[in-house]
Design a protein that fits this description.
Layout: E1 6-14, H1 25-37, E2 42-47, H2 51-67, E3 77-78, H3 80-90, E4 104-106, E5 109-111, E6 113-121, H4 129-139, E7 145-146, E8 151-152, H5 159-164, E9 171-180, E10 188-197, E11 203-204, E12 211-212
Parallel strand pairs: 3-9
Antiparallel strand pairs: 1-6, 2-9, 4-5, 6-10, 7-8, 9-10, 11-12
Helix pairs in contact: 2-4
This protein binds 2-acetamido-2-deoxy-beta-D-glucopyranose (NAG) (2 copies).
One 2-acetamido-2-deoxy-beta-D-glucopyranose binds next to loops.
C-alpha cells in the first residue's frame, strides 16, 4: 500500500446506573447506533498488561485526580477482577460498549463504568504506547468541561474525563487487544478498555435539564469530605 495511516478514536464513556436507566435514553440510543454499525474484527492477540503498565495506568489516574483540587477524591487502585472483565470483553475486538447487564455485579460493584479507546494503524506494528497514552487522551477532555455548570462545550464529549476524576470511583482494571479490522475495512487496531468501580457519571436529576452530576466536590481542603475509612488523595 502506498500510504500509512494512524489515528485514534475515543468512544463516549458510559456507566449507566440501573436506577437511572430510563434517564439515559440518549446514551442508550448512541450505544444502539454503535452496535448497529459495529463490525467486530479478528483477535490477533489479547495483551497481557505488564506490572509496570498497570502501575503507570493507576499512577496517571491518581495524578489527574490529585490535580482536580477536590475535597472528596478517593485514591484509585488496581482490581484484578475488573481487569479480567476488561480483558475478556475487549478481546471480542468490538469497539462498542459492553451492556449494563455485562457490567453488573463485578468485583462487588453493582455496576462498573467503562472508558474505551482505539488506535488504528495501516500496518501490524503492535505498538503498546497507546495503552498508556489513552489515559491522557481521556483526561484531555477537561479542556471542554466547565466545572461550575458541570457541563461540556456543545457537541463535545467529556464523559471519559468525568469518569477518570469521578471522586467515588476507587478501583480500576484495564485490558487491551490487538485486532485485525473487520473485512469491510483495512488495517489493524489496538483496543483499550478501562472499567471503573463503582461506576461514575451518575445523573444529577435535580439539574434541568438532567445531566451527569459533578464528578467531585470542591468544598474545603483536600480530603476533608472523605469518610474516615477512605483513602483520599490530595
Ligand atoms: C488546582 O489548584 C492549583 C493551584 O491553585 C491551580 O493551579 C490549578 O489550576 C487547579 N486545578 C484545577 C483543575 O482547577
Ligand atoms: C445537581 O444539580 C443542582 C442544580 O443545578 C446543583 O446545585 C448541584 O450542585 C448538583 N449536584 C451534583 C452532585 O452535581
Amino acid at each position: 500500500m502506498a500510504f500509512n495511516f494512524y489515528f485514534t478514536i475515543l468512544l463516549l464513556s458510559v456507566s449507566i446506573a440501573q436506577a437511572f436507566g430510563n434517564d439515559y435514553t440518549s446514551i442508550n440510543a448512541e450505544e444502539a447506533r454503535h452496535r448497529a454499525k459495529r463490525a467486530p474484527g479478528d483477535l490477533l492477540e489479547t495483551v497481557v498488561l505488564t506490572e509496570a503498565e498497570k502501575i503507570e495506568i493507576v499512577r496517571l489516574h491518581n495524578q489527574y485526580r490529585s490535580r482536580a483540587n477536590a475535597s472528596d477524591m478517593l485514591a484509585m487502585s488496581w482490581d484484578n477482577t475488573i481487569a479480567q472483565f476488561a480483558s475478556n470483553y475487549i478481546s471480542n475486538c468490538d469497539f462498542a460498549h459492553s451492556t449494563n447487564a455485562q457490567r453488573s455485579s463485578i468485583s462487588g460493584f453493582s455496576i462498573i463504568g467503562e472508558n474505551l479507546g482505539t488506535q488504528i494503524t495501516s500496518s501490524n506494528i503492535r505498538s503498546r504506547d497507546y495503552i498508556l497514552s489513552v489515559t491522557q487522551a481521556w483526561h484531555n477532555e477537561i479542556n471542554d468541561y466547565f466545572y461550575d455548570t458541570f457541563s461540556c462545550i456543545a457537541n463535545k464529549a467529556c464523559g471519559h474525563y468525568t469518569q477518570v476524576v469521578w471522586a467515588k470511583t476507587y478501583k480500576i482494571g484495564c485490558g487491551a487487544a490487538f485486532c485485525r479490522r473487520a473485512t469491510s475495512t483495512v488495517g489493524y487496531r489496538l483496543l483499550v478498555s478501562c472499567n471503573y468501580g463503582p461506576a461514575g457519571n451518575f445523573l444529577n436529576n435535580t439539574a434541568q435539564p438532567s445531566r451527569v452530576g459533578r464528578p467531585f466536590e470542591r468544598k474545603g481542603a483536600p480530603c476533608s469530605q472523605c469518610a474516615q475509612q477512605d483513602t483520599c488523595v490530595d
